[in-house]
Amino acid sequence: MTQAASKKDIPVNIYRPKNPYIGKCIGNTELVGEGGIGTVRHLTFDISDGDLRYVEGQSIGIIPPGTDAAGKKHKLRLYSIASTRHGDNVDDKTVSLCVRQLEYKHPETGETVYGVCSTHLCNLEVGADVTITGPVGKEMLLPEDENANIIMMATGTGIAPFRAYLWRMFKEQHENYKFKGFAWLIFGIPKTPNILYKEELEKLQEEFPDNFRLTYAISREQKNKDGGKMYLQHRVAEHSEELWNLIQQENTHTYICGLKGMEGGIDEALTGPASKSGVEWSTYQRQLKKAHRWHVETY
Ligand code: FAD
Ligand code: A2P
């Protein structure tokens, strides 16, 4: 089985909470269109001073300013990096994130509560400082193989690492990495205006129709076959034979990012076609994980 990128050269914890990197916000734009649900921002930070480096699939930590209810400094929160190692301006000087503002009703008081760090980030002004740690994470690395099959399953901001992959695979066109394999993104979002990076994703699909397939599961607009909400795992079920055939190829890597709740449904959807081939899915999945071909980052 082919392995993901060599893990030993991956940068980790260059900056730690006691000695963080202070970056500057140079971009903060809304990704949710009119009529969509909530706030999701694409944030870009200048990291041109110092030594912060990263590769696609890693995360950084953000420490929000201020203290918690116990008077202690806030702890860091992790965010998947949404840019390639070269950054959105391809000049190796920035890192980008895709952040949803956490908003929920307090279960007892019914008051609207906003998440500390996600609110700090979503409201960050251009020019403001941001406290960064990391990078961390070796679970979601892309294989070096230019001919690999890359299956990506994302809900919401789970798109972040896949934006980084797709930009590297199709947009940047490096001399030493030209993707020639097959990439399939299955993307779960509540409404059409919530399709993060929609125009760019669809442009890539138009430009690379043989190498990039894009499938949406729009939960509050589309129905699954039983009449319920169309979740990502229902799309996986619709295409389960095809996915199972792909997954069995030795050069296929599957990546799952976003809500933990989708994992059970994905397993359920793949159990049927696997058993038709006389294979027990959970056993097979264990082998895939061991071979670093089944990558999960859910939160
Ligand atoms: P906090 O102020 O810390 O509030 C969170 C707390 O609120 C929860 O612990 C819980 O106690 C409570 N809470 C939350 N929802 C409810 C509810 N419905 N009912 C009652 N109580 C509730 N987020 C992104 O937006 N983009 C990313 O790319 C991203 N990547 C991540 C990658 C990793 C590896 C991990 C682990 C997480 C990632 N996250 C990402 C999530 C992120 O780290 C934060 O958890 C998120 O932004 C919320 O932090 P906060 O400080 O705003 O919320
Ligand atoms: P819904 O909110 O309609 O229940 P976002 O982060 O923008 O809210 O997108 C997350 C998407 O994942 C939404 O479409 C949401 O649907 C969907 N979702 C919620 N719970 C699950 C689950 N258990 N499995 C798969 N998708 C889910």
Structure description:
- The chain is of the alpha/beta class.
- Helix 3 links the parallel strand 10 and strand 11.
- Helix 5 crosses helix 6.
- The chain is globular, with a radius of gyration of 19 Å.
- The relative contact order is 0.16.
- The model has no long low-confidence stretch (mean pLDDT 96).
- The site of flavin-adenine dinucleotide has 20 residues, from strand 4, strand 5 and helix 1.
* Rg: 19 Å
C-alpha termini separation: 28 Å
- Average pLDDT, all residues: 96
For this structure, the CATH topology of the largest domain is Rossmann fold
Tally the beta strands: 13
Determine the CATH superfamily of the largest domain.
Answer: Nucleotide-binding domain of ferredoxin-NADP reductase (FNR) module
Q: What is the CATH class name of the largest domain?
A: Alpha Beta
Q: Could you say which small molecules are bound to this protein?
A: flavin-adenine dinucleotide, adenosine-2'-5'-diphosphate
Helix share of residues? 10-25%
What are the low-pLDDT stretches, counting only 5+ consecutive residues below 50?
A: none
Shape: globular
Strand order of the largest sheet: 4-3-8-1-2-5
| Sheet with the most strands, sense and barrel status | 6 strands, antiparallel
Tally of separate helices: 7
**Class from secondary-structure proportions:** alpha/beta
Following the backbone from N to C, one meets helices and strands in this order, namely: EEEEEEEHEEHEHEHHEHHE
- When the domains are counted, the total is 2
CATH architecture of the largest domain: 3-Layer(aba) Sandwich
